Amino acid sequence: MSGVSIRLYWWQGLGIAIASAIVLYTNSSVAQITPDGTLPSNSNVKLEDNTRIISGGTTRGANLFHSFSEFSVPTGSQALFNNALDIENILTRITGSSVSNIDGSILTLGKANLFLMNPNGIIFGKNASLNIGGSFVATTANAIGFGNLGFFSASNPEAPSPLLTVNPNALLFNQIAAAPIQNSSTAPAGSTPGGRDAFGLRVRDGRSLLLVGGNVNMDGGRLNAFSGRVELGGLRSAGTVGLNGDGNNSRLSFPNNVERSNVFLSNGAQVNVVADNGGSIAVNARNLEMTGESSLRAAIGEGLGTVGSQVGDIEVHATGAINLNNSDIFNQVRPGANGQAGDISISTSSLRLEGGAQVSAGTFGAGKGGSLRIDAQDVQIIGRTPDSRFPSGLFAGADGNSTGDAGDITLRTNTLLVRDGAQVGNGTYGLGKGGSLRVDAQDVQIIGRSADDRFPSGLFASADGNSTGNAGDITLRTNTLLVRDGAQVNTATFGAGKGGSLTVDAQDVQIIGTSADGRFSSGLNVSTQRNSIGDAGDITLRTNTLLMRDGAQVLTVTNGAGKGGSLTVDAQDVQIIGRSADGRAASGLFASAGRNSTGDAGDFTVRTNTLLVRDGAGVGVESLGTGTAGNMTLNARSIRLNNGLLIATTRSPKVDPNREQATININSNDLIISRNSNIRTDARGANVIGGNININADVLAGFQNSDITANSTDFRGGNVRINTKGIFGIQFRDIASPNTSDITATGATRELSGNVQITTPDIDPTNGLIELPTNLVDVSQQISTACTPGSRQFQSSFVSTGRGGLPMSPTEPLQDTSTLSAWVRLRPKPATRAKTTISPQPTAVSNSTKVAAATTIVEATGWVVESNGNIELVAQAPNVTSESSRQTPASCPASR
């Protein structure tokens, strides 16, 4: 009897007809698949041309157990499990010491799930393929557990218990380091649900494909479980991996206290669950590395899905690092598809995206996009693809021709670095609403642009051209925020929808510099773009310290028909310093309506302790279009302008007579302007009234040609109202002088000049003064006779009263602070005493010594403070005791 060679695939239909098409050879030996004889009913292997027919085995309920000393499938050959159709699980163990090399096909009958367990390792070659009815689990675990009923072990190959009739629920790893699983399969695997060619290992649609080992390495290999589930992961040391599910769909649960193994995808490796519904991916690893255009893909495929279709989630959990280089993780609703995308969640110690790597949850179709959540200690997003076309980044969006809303991005990390043209973005290009972008971090750094300087690094939320949905908001909560070298944080609308708002809560914010060519400022921006009709969002910046320098900007602007957003800054200290290196960009805070815009500009409010604007930097509100300019309000304890500018510019007539525009309101304890600084409202155009300037300051000082002006070039000037307790160095003039500090409010003509009103408190210069008598004091009557100068006791002495002046009466003691402060510093006073003084304690001397002192001049070697508080030079320094402050009555030394 001659055999029939077969090559079967699941899409050709297996059924009972397979059994009749196979003629089994008895007593055939096959070196690649060898039963080990450890089962009550042993496995049998028969050869039919290039097909190894596996039969026999031990049955426990709906479970079929096979045991082999080795199991490999060479290139061009097949291994067919000839199981009964009522079998639900085929559990296969390899008890020898050889790795399983699979470069042919593995087939099963019916809908059975296949478990392939080899603790020595499993390698799927380029030609490996699967044609099984159920799910597939390849593992290098030592045993498969069945709860409390027992386990099926490869390292201790005992017969399976009669109780093992339920679905397996655990994979047990007992070895110190589990062997790896490798997959390089790119074999033809039929067609995808969307009609494209599929390649690699594949299970039936809706089923699971699990690779659970030590390290899992996919070098160019592919895994396919359309509408089903793919899981990759393993353990680095002994532990148990939970196996959950209903038999058709399985999922893993990993212990938290056991170190995990690594997962690698390289050279275009791909995990694909794209279909019309369902489809999920999970990776549990110590480290995950994806390179060379490798990808994890979940989606509703093009033209597929219904209103109720729902994609599953992609979950990636790594206890170590996740590194993606020019590789992708996608969960989407594809163009022409209908349904809702799933979410992407990533948890890791470190996440690094570079070379154009992307993680994206979005919708191109009628359904809602998924959300993206990142939890990490450190996140680095760097650069773009080598051709600079695509950025490295995190994205969630509703793209062109979509009707669904975009999902949200939530990023929680200690440190976030976005640089060299990389981006984090959320936007809508269609009818749906854009999602929000939220960052909670300790430190955020957004740096630079792409190598060709065309694309900024940044965080973005937008409603783009032809969209009608609103853009989402950006919220940053961080200790420190650094934006520099042309990088940006930006929300915008290009269409009919409203732009999102930008909120920053931080301890320290630094926005520094421009792009390398000076064309693009670093900044925080919200905007409406040309031809848009939606309003811009607002900027709210709350921080302890804000530093902007070298051309950096914070800007709300409308360039279309919509209204510009408001700008609010709450800070302890604000410093705005300098211009760009080429002088073209001013560092500054601005609320603006651009040229050719028709929308109104927003208002601008600063609340701070200290505000410093210097070296060409500026703060302003303006309208260069037909809409009205906003108003600026500065509330501060201290404001310093050092070659700085506060400006309110308008080119449009005031439409609402009850609403001021381009007005500057300043409330500060002190306002000091110097070195060509300016506070001005600048109005130009027919019927354009100059804005007003309202200043309330305890002290107002202007020096070095610094001006306050409310002028209108072509119509009526604005009003200047100043309420101050003191004004120095600056004064009102009809016309400003180029060499003085001036206050002006000029119009096109003298009759159209505005008003300048300066209010100071009424002061009577004679109030509180005492009229002095005309007769001078007779100093001869002010000499005390209690101690006669020239007497013996005052010889060889010197007394200084210090710089504090004489007391009202010579009998009154001088205060120690006045006496000593001018010429000697005492030791620090004790913390427990309110005041420290030096009290004289002269050493007692004999009469003979006193006589000698009266007749002999002795050089002074020290000094004492005597009871009157005077300092006396003495020949011998006494012992000095520091004690609480006290004053003794004045007296003279007794005569001998």
Protein model, in words:
- By secondary structure, the protein is mainly β.
- It has three helices and 65 strands.
- The strands form seven sheets. The chain has a 30-stranded mixed β-sheet that branches. It has a 19-stranded parallel β-sheet, with no helix packed on it.
- It is elongated, with a radius of gyration of 43 Å.
- It starts with 16 loop residues before the first helix and ends in a 12-residue tail after the last strand.
Contiguous uncertain segments of 5+ residues: 1-30, 816-855, 880-896
Helix content: under 10%
End-to-end Cα distance: 153 Å
Query: Whole-number average pLDDT?
Result: 83
Q: What is the CATH homologous superfamily assignment of the domain at 33-243?
A: Single-stranded right-handed beta-helix, Pectin lyase-like
Main beta-sheet annotation: 30 strands, mixed
Radius of gyration: 43 Å
Count of alpha/pi helices: 3
Which features characterize this protein?
disordered C terminus; Pectate Lyase C-like; single chain; Filamentous haemagglutinin FhaB/tRNA nuclease CdiA-like TPS domain-containing protein; 896 residues; Pectin_lyas_fold; mainly beta; Pectin_lyase_fold/virulence; FhaB/CdiA-like_TPS; disordered N terminus; 19-stranded parallel β-sheet; 3 helices
Task: Put the structure in a nutshell.
With 896 residues, this protein is mostly beta strands.
Strand and helix layout:
Elements (H helix, E strand, L loop, with lengths): L16 H5 L11 E3 L7 E6 L2 E6 L1 E3 L2 E9 L6 E4 L7 E6 L5 E3 L2 E4 L4 E5 L4 E3 L4 E3 L4 E4 L3 E3 L5 E3 L16 E4 L7 E3 L4 E4 L5 E3 L1 E2 L5 E6 L2 E4 L2 E3 L4 E6 L4 E7 L4 E4 L9 E4 L3 E3 L7 E6 L2 E4 L3 E6 L13 E12 L2 E6 L10 E11 L3 E6 L8 E11 L10 E6 L10 E11 L3 E6 L8 E11 L10 E6 L10 E11 L3 E6 L8 E11 L10 E6 L10 E11 L3 E6 L8 E11 L10 E6 L10 E11 L3 E6 L8 E11 L2 E6 L13 E11 L3 E6 L9 E10 L4 E6 L7 E9 L2 E2 L9 E3 L11 E4 L56 H5 L15 E4 L7 H9 L6 E4 L5 E4 L6 E4 L12
Parallel strand pairs: 3-6, 5-7, 6-9, 7-10, 8-11, 9-12, 10-13, 11-17, 13-21, 17-22, 20-23, 21-24, 22-27, 23-28, 24-29, 27-30, 28-31, 29-32, 30-32, 31-33, 32-34, 33-35, 34-36, 35-37, 36-38, 37-39, 38-40, 39-41, 40-42, 41-43, 42-44, 43-45, 44-46, 45-47, 46-48, 47-49, 48-50, 49-51, 50-52, 51-53, ...
Antiparallel strand pairs: 1-5, 2-3, 4-5, 14-15, 14-16, 16-25, 18-19, 25-26, 62-65, 63-64
